Each structure stands twice: as C-alpha cells, then as structure tokens.
Fold this sequence. Notes:
Order of helices and strands: HHHHHH
Number of helices: 6
Distance between the termini: 38 Å
CATH architecture: Alpha Horseshoe
Amino acid sequence: DVNKVDNEGRSPLFAAVACCDEGSVRALIEAGADVNKANNGGFTPMQYAADIQKESKAVDEIEAIMAIAQLLRDAGAKDITCEDELHTAAGDGDVARVRTLIEAGADVNKVDN
C-alpha cells in the first residue's frame, strides 16, 4: 500500500522526498501515492520539499528537490498552507524557498492574517 503511514503519519512518499530520490517519488506517484496526504503534523510532501530546500546548501540537492516539487505539482499536489509559509519565507529573505512556494502555487497576492 503506497499510502500506508508510519506512527507520525508519513507515507513512503515523505521518505522519498526526504532522500531527494526523484525516481522513487515518480514511481510512488505512478503507483497511486496521494500527493496531498498530510502527516500527523499537517504537513504535505510539497511542504516537506520546501523545507528541505530551505535547509539545503548543496546545489545538486536543491536541483533534485526542485524536480521533485515539479513531479508533485504535475500530480496535483496542493499546498494548503503555502501562503502562510510564503509570508514567512519572504520575511526571512529566503529567495530559494519563496521561489519554491510560488512554483508550488502560493498566492502572491494573499493578505496575511
């Protein structure tokens, strides 16, 4: 079952994203992985990818996570809290994360609460 979760609510897709494994992400999506299934903390694989990019300093890892984010988007991934994260990333001056969130569909015109 590609959507079976661990004790923290993470599906195998989370593990593939965490390892920046584009091939596994693609295979899981093709096998029917739910790209919008959130873990127990409410985070989706797309949000997890954005967090990984924020922490990464390696160019090859950033490129891999960008490709993974595109796969997730192509499979219909939505990021329900993307706008809140966009405000945070912009406030932190984190250009790479801002780009990732915008590419993930964040509304650049949404007003923060």
